[in-house]
């Protein structure tokens, strides 16, 4: 750490007005006293550049009178003894009062108290990670200043009503640093100390990464890097859309910002680039991202793999960018950057905040050692000594509690003012207010299901993707919060809302969202839209391309985001595009995923029923697998019975059939035709639609046994997909007709014949198990 110490000492001297000079050999010796002697050939250069970029500081000390050697020596021995009271009194007073007029959010608060609040954030994170012996202390230690300014000075929120609609949204995209958010929430009135002390433990509200379903006040679930910033784009899109639809020249009832802290890892993940590209295109001016530029990842310094100019990339994507060169002590620079960002209304803003990870740790700062592991008792004490923090673990000084606890009163006042504005809005615009309140309260209009078309055998055969478009447009007329789009496949997925235009920078009130070829970004963005409140989003692509967005879909299920995933071209039946486009294992993989409904409707009635299920499930996402090829509307299908997951569509038995045929999607018609042939031969055959395994498995055992008679062992499943999982329904004596290898390029009917999806093959298979 000798190079780190020498450069931090240099920076502190320059902060005090002393010219920066190259570290001499004697300085290195002094700074290295007690430090590791391991050579840092490339590290020395990195640390020197880091010190220059960061500006001038050491710890939270602003030293007015010192020399380089003494500062370096002081840093090196900080682990052994706390700084003297004399040095504490030598801290140069830097008042923020002079900036109050220029920077409205800067409070006239004593700098020493601000320092204390920021250190309280750091040590709550340090102590929680240390107690858990697990976690990521480095980010909270480095990002504490920007977190403090956001929560204490900038954001509007009500800790006692975290779901208040017009709050600013905060997303910690770098979710591994969640103790930053938990500490901030605790200090501003959300959580109890006991929760912090149970960090990463069973049953606590402080899990190892932020989880919106566990911790009130956490907006979205983050952890997989890049997902959070993409969620933030969705949150900002939702704000822009609702503001455009409901705000009036004399009434702004939708008026809040989305703030996001992201790290190097988030910027490396491709999903973030997809999302920020769209954010720039859409001109989401109320999205402000603070990039914790600490240059450290798990493998070490980021110069081993990540050397691009992130700021220029964001600029190229249509963002306004700002660089705060010293994110550890230049609080005014952070404040001014946020004010500048808020003044730019036609672009999202990236604020690159250069920090030192693990700030204040004498031996681990600016290294990957502080990224993902507890500091250890000795280094915790060294950090306490160096940052002059005399308090026991989890103890928050009373003046810090009082200062940051003001958020409760401020939040209540903000909400009260908004409620008063909402009352005036209702008086002036009663119809708009009724719809708006319905949306933000998550209420569905009475009788909305009746808007969906009714299908019976008299309706001509059609592909379920075409039927889906009819349903989507019917729902858009009945559900004012329903919107969405496709990943550049609108004409193939059939997802255009014909009565609406495109959501664009200049037309944010419209409801067709053009995501471009960005499946992963699309999936993560709609998660943010769903979790904002007020909207029911859908998105679409080919079913096989869920491979590109599976990470976002998993987070959708985990975070209980009620997204509707419209997935077309659901089997080998799509034909000539071949195995690159033909999904095989996809149905099985999503059936294995918790808290997501995988539905493959077999005709028009079941497609309408699948949409009813999807809209009603607001805390569980749904996937509709839809066909390219035409399917007949069958006599026994039912929109209402889709909610049962599996049900009998035809049966010529008196209660106990000779055989049971099960199928989904386009193979349901095939199963029905095969059953008719068997019935001609005197066989009693039941045909069961297994449109959703998850829903069927949730039904009472009595009902399940009434559909799949336990004494009937002659069972056959028919599905143009992997047979994986079907054996739990067909049993050891049954057989599965499916596709357990990749498909092929040929016309759909040819593929069905070659893979055995024919009436004769189904009939023969049933006979073989009877």
Please describe the topology of this protein.
Blueprint: H1 2-15, H2 25-31, H3 41-54, H4 68-76, H5 85-89, H6 111-132, H7 138-154, E1 169-172, H8 178-187, H9 193-197, H10 227-246, E2 258-263, H11 264-268, H12 270-282, E3 287-293, E4 296-297, E5 300-301, H13 310-316, E6 320-324, H14 331-343, E7 349-354, H15 377-386, H16 398-404, H17 406-428, H18 430-440, E8 462-463, H19 464-478, E9 482-486, H20 490-493, E10 502-503, E11 512-513, H21 519-532, E12 536-542, H22 546-558, E13 564-568, H23 586-591, E14 597-599, H24 604-616, E15 622-625, E16 630-631, E17 647-651, E18 659-663, H25 667-680, E19 685-689, H26 693-697, H27 701-707, E20 715-718, H28 727-730, E21 735-737, H29 748-754, H30 759-769
Parallel strand pairs: 1-2, 2-3, 3-7, 6-7, 9-12, 10-11, 12-13, 13-15, 14-15, 18-19, 18-20, 20-21
Antiparallel strand pairs: 4-5, 8-16, 17-19
Helix pairs in contact: 1-2, 1-3, 1-4, 2-4, 6-7, 6-8, 6-16, 7-8, 7-14, 10-12, 10-21, 12-21, 17-18, 19-24, 21-22, 25-30
């Amino acid at each position: 750490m000798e190079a780190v110490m020498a450069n931090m000492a240099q920076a502190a001297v320059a902060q005090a007005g002393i010219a920066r000079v190259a570290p001499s050999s004697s300085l290195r010796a002094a700074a290295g006293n007690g430090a590791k002697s391991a050579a840092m050939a490339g590290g020395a250069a990195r640390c020197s550049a880091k010190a220059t970029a960061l500006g001038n500081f050491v710890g939270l000390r602003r030293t007015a009178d010192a020399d380089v050697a003494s500062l370096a020596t002081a840093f090196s021995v900080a682990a052994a003894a706390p700084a003297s009271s004399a040095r504490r009194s030598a801290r140069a007073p830097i008042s923020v009062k002079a900036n109050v007029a220029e920077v409205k959010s800067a409070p006239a608060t004593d700098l020493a108290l601000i320092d204390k609040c920021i250190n309280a954030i750091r040590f709550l994170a340090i102590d929680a990670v240390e107690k858990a012996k697990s976690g990521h202390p480095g980010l909270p230690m480095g990002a504490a200043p920007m977190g403090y300014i956001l929560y204490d000075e900038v954001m509007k929120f009500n800790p006692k009503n975290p779901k208040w609609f017009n709050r600013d949204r905060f997303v910690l995209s770098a979710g591994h640093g969640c103790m930053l958010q938990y500490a901030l929430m605790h200090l501003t009135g959300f959580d109890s100390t006991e929760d912090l002390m149970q960090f990463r433990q069973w049953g606590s509200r402080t899990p190892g990464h932020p989880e919106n379903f566990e911790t009130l006040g956490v907006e979205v679930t983050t952890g997989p890097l890049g997902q959070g910033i993409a969620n933030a784009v969705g949150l900002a899109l939702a704000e822009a859309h609702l503001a455009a639809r409901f705000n009036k020249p004399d009434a702004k009832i939708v008026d809040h910002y989305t703030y996001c802290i992201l790290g190097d890892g988030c910027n490396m993940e491709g999903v973030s680039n997809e999302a920020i590209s769209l954010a720039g295109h859409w001109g989401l001016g109320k999205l402000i991202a603070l990039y914790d530029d600490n240059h450290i990842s798990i493998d070490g310094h980021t110069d081993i793999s990540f050397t691009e100019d992130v700021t220029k990339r964001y600029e190229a994507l249509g963002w306004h960018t700002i660089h705060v060169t010293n994110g550890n002590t230049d609080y005014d620079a952070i404040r001014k950057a946020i004010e500048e960002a808020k003044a730019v209304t036609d672009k999202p803003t990236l604020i690159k905040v250069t920090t030192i990870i693990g700030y204040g740790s004498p031996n681990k700062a600016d290294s990957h050692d502080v990224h993902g592991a507890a500091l250890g008792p000795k280094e915790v004490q060294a950090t306490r000594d160096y940052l002059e923090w005399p308090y026991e673990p989890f103890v928050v000084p009373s003046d810090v509690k009082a200062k940051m606890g003001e958020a409760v009163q401020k939040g209540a006042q903000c909400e009260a003012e908004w409620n008063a504005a909402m009352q005036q809005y209702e008086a002036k615009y009663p119809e708009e207010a009724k719809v708006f309140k319905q949306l933000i309260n998550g209420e569905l209009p009475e009788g909305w299901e009746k808007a969906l078309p009714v299908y019976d055998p008299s309706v001509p055969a059609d592909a379920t993707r075409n039927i889906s478009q009819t349903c989507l447009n019917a729902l858009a007329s009945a559900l004012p919060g329903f919107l969405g789009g496709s990943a550049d496949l609108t004409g193939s997925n059939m997802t255009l809302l014909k009565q609406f235009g495109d959501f664009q920078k200049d037309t944010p009130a419209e409801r067709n969202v053009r995501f471009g070829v960005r499946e992963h970004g699309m999936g993560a963005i709609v998660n943010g839209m769903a979790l904002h409140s007020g909207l029911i989003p859908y998105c679409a692509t080919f079913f096989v391309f869920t491979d590109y967005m599976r990470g976002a879909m998993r987070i959708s299920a985990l975070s209980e985001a009620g997204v509707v995933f419209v997935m077309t071209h659901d089997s080998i039946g799509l034909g000539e595009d071949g195995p690159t486009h033909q999904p095989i294992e996809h149905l099985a993989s999503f059936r294995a995923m918790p808290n997501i409904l995988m539905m493959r409707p077999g005709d028009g009635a079941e497609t309408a029923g699948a949409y009813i299920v999807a809209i009603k499930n607001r805390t569980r996402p749904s996937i509709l697998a839809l066909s390219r090829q035409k399917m007949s509307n069958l006599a026994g299908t039912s929109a209402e019975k889709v909610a049962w997951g599996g049900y009998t569509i035809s049966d010529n038995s008196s209660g106990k059939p000779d055989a049971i045929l099960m199928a989904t999607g386009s193979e349901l018609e095939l199963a029905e035709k095969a059953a008719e042939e068997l019935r001609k031969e005197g066989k009693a055959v039941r045909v069961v639609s297994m449109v959703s395994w998850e829903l069927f498995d949730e039904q009472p055992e009595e009902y399940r046994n009434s559909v799949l008679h336990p004494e009937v062992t002659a069972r056959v499943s028919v599905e143009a997909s992997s047979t994986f999982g079907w054996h739990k329904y067909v049993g050891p004596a049954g057989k599965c007709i499916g596709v357990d290898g990749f498909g092929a390029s040929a016309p759909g009917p040819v593929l069905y014949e070659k893979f055995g999806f024919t009436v004769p093959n189904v009939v023969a298979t049933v006979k073989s198990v009877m």
